[in-house]
From TrEMBL:
Residues 1-21 have a biased composition (Basic and acidic residues). Residues 1-40 are annotated as: Disordered. This is Uncharacterized protein.
Length: 174
């Protein structure tokens, strides 16, 4: 199973090599909004999207956030299952010409002991796994299943996009 995950992650990485090149040299889990960077700028607030991994929607949400507000937020994504369906996520993003950037996709365990500014749980199942969550300043629960299933990817991606627009209107444009 890990070889399939590695293969899928490699495919997404190839698709987004250009988009990732501007982030070279940054630590994946670099975080401290109060400490200035050496050049005097503050580090961007981090947003960790969490899903169960079945459809890879945390990768979709992180990629949409990066597409819209990469200069304002550091998008991260995690999943609670053993594997994450990256191929499905990348396919969903390709339909909208959004780069599939899986450079910050990790299991939730990889973020243990880390601090994030915003932890956004995309569905109830993502927090009902019983796994420990990283420390966060603000927890935001979404329900991309809208009380049901996420079988229609197009509707789910639209819902994620709408929620990100709302998130940006609240936390970026205030």
């Amino acid at each position: 199973m890990n070889s399939q995950r590695d293969k899928n992650m490699g495919q997404c990485a190839k698709e987004s090599e250009k988009a990732n090149s501007r982030n070279e040299g940054l630590s994946v889990l670099e975080k401290d909004t109060e400490t200035p960077k050496p050049n005097g700028q503050k580090i961007k607030p981090s947003v960790l999207f969490l899903c169960d991994g079945e459809e890879g929607y945390s990768l979709v949400a992180q990629s949409i956030l990066n597409h819209k507000a990469d200069s304002y937020f550091k998008g991260l994504c995690a999943f609670t299952s053993e594997v994450c369906n990256i191929a499905s996520a990348c396919q969903s993003l390709r339909q909208y010409n959004i780069a599939c950037r899986d450079d910050h996709l990790r299991t939730i365990e990889a973020y243990q002991g880390q601090n994030v500014d915003f932890l956004i749980a995309l569905s109830p199942s993502s927090v009902q796994s019983g796994k420990s969550l990283p420390r966060y300043t603000k927890f935001i629960p979404w329900d991309i299943t809208q009380g049901g299933e996420t079988s229609d990817r197009q509707i789910t991606v639209k819902y994620i996009n709408d929620q990100i627009n709302y998130f940006l209107s609240v936390y970026l444009y205030r």
